[in-house]
Design brief:
By secondary structure, the chain is an alpha+beta fold. The protein contains 14 helices and seven strands. The longest helix has 34 residues.
Length: 366
């Protein structure tokens, strides 16, 4: 790993993420250097953010013109995809409401609204949760409309609608400890009146209260770290969300939520990374993290694994198994479980059991 180039990558990411700053270089970047930076931006789905840093660079610091053109085309594609996603999102929300469902938008475009340029955030899919146990009703609605869907592990289903991937989730949070389910249900009721409205394409869409949004986004990050890894874009989501809602949340209550759900230790690691590597002001955090803790090892794992572990060259020659869609899947999950047990023991302990149950017995059948 070229640490010099890695440092430059994070400089560019911070500049694009916060819309300020300047790039400090000891030597001029070569075309080969820029090619590597471009590759990293793709593997971490932050090409739009790196692109946004270009307006803050000096002329002799910019990538070669041919790469700039290629990058501009890619960002244009991201903008078009986000426009299409917003159209689908608004239409689906209105459709669900018409039949009496109460959908809540999870992550995704709701978090994009926290960015300076929301259209440059690389979006994944549209995630819905339905209040009052509406998941089953929404599933029946898909069957009535003859929309093909697939039930998946993790108590979810997915389908394509107008070329956009849609996911429905039976559970609001990816907490694996089953002894937390009653507490999570209580949280949902407690914060119901603090749900927020998000305007997308003239449609007012419900999102979670800020405290629960943070819990959802950060637990989602941890879930993927326990399996095959996650890209920097999801960490950028967490940073921008903290920055946006820091004045709206109850710090003491949020810390208790993290503590009660068993992820406070891991949350400290995440906060360290958000401040040290992504440039989030420590004042935007709800509470301080331990001074003596180190999280460089976690950042190394995140950087190597890339978006959901698809770009981890360390395992490109690993073998596949029926239970894993990634090479060396069992080894990677076991390594991560050992790595994070110290920081979230209950979640790590229950992770394999819930994963196995959700794959074997927890999938809905007609």
């Amino acid at each position: 790993m070229d640490n010099r180039l890695k440092d430059i990558f994070f400089q560019l990411l911070r500049i694009g993420l916060w819309g300020k700053g300047s790039l400090i270089l000891a030597d001029t970047l070569s075309a080969e250097d820029w090619s590597k930076l471009h590759s990293w931006s793709i593997s971490h789905t932050v090409e739009g953010l790196i692109y946004d840093s270009f307006t803050h660079l000096k002329e002799d610091q910019l990538p070669p013109q041919s790469l700039r053109i290629k990058w501009t085309v890619r960002v244009d594609q991201i903008e078009r995809h986000n426009s299409k996603m917003n159209e689908v999102l608004a239409a689906q929300y209105e459709g669900f409401k018409k039949v009496g469902l109460q959908p809540i938008l999870q992550k995704g475009q709701g978090i994009a609204a926290c960015y300076d340029i929301p259209m440059h955030r690389m979006s994944g899919d549209i995630d819905w949760y339905f209040e009052n146990k509406g998941y089953a009703e929404a599933r029946e609605l898909l069957k009535e409309k003859k929309i093909p869907f697939q039930d998946t592990a993790g108590f979810s289903l997915f389908y394509d609608w107008k070329s956009i991937t849609i996911e429905h989730h039976k559970r609001l949070f990816h907490i694996r400890n089953p002894f937390q389910y009653r507490y999570l249900s209580k949280l949902e009721k407690t914060y119901h009146k603090q749900q927020q409205d998000l305007l997308i394409n003239s449609t007012t869409i419900k999102t979670l209260a800020p405290e629960l949004q943070l819990l959802q986004v950060n637990v989602h990050i941890f879930k993927h770290l326990l399996s095959f890894g996650i890209g920097l874009r999801q960490l950028c989501d967490s940073a921008r969300l903290y920055y946006t809602v820091s004045s709206q949340i109850d710090p003491t209550a949020l810390k208790e939520i993290y503590r009660h759900t068993g992820i406070l230790g891991w949350t400290h690691l995440l906060h360290i990374i958000l401040v040290k590597y992504l440039g989030l002001s420590s004042q935007s955090l709800p509470f301080p993290y331990p001074d003596h803790w180190q999280a460089d090892w976690m950042m190394d794992e995140i950087f190597y694994s890339g978006n959901f572990g698809y770009h981890d060259d360390r395992y490109k020659d690993g073998s596949f198994s029926p239970l894993s869609a990634r090479p060396a899947g069992a080894h990677r999950i076991w390594s991560n479980m050992k790595r994070y047990f110290k920081y979230a023991p209950q979640e790590v302990f229950f992770y394999p059991f819930v994963q196995l149950y959700s794959k074997m017995l927890g999938i809905d059948e007609d």
